Amino acid sequence: MTASVVSIVYVNDAPAAARFYGDILGMSPSSETSGYITFDLGPGADLAVWSGQFEDLSPDVPRTSEVCLAIDGGPDELNATFEQWNSKGVTILREPHDAGFGLTFLAADPDGNRIRVAPLD
Q1: How far apart are CA 50 and CA 40, in angstroms?
Q2: CA angle centred on 10, ends 35 and 97, rounded to 5°
Q3: In tens digits, what is the pLDDT along the chain, a chain of 121 residues?
Q4: Domain VOC spans what residues (predicted)?
């Protein structure tokens, strides 16, 4: 059996969210409809932005789940990613800090969904 895990991020505007995620991930969507856009993250893993189920989500609604971008390269790479995202105007919720599993920081997409950047295990 082939399995794939798709992490879905609910957004107000799927094309705008796809531009945001495409920019921070450095990739283009792998599949695209008007309200559902996916990114192929590698074998068995996709990230999707979807505006079809929860119309008019407000960024003011607290978001408690996270998408975690696990990166190679240690603290230097994580700090470089933080600086790059910060210079692009990405909303930073918490600057790089040690969370017990390594250096991490927390950002948000334009809809307020959380994005954690952490070291690859």
Answers
A1: 15
A2: 135
A3: 567 889 999 888 899 999 999 999 999 999 999 899 999 999 989 999 998 766 566 666 666 678 999 999 889 999 999 999 999 999 999 999 998 889 999 999 998 899 999 998 7
A4: 1-120
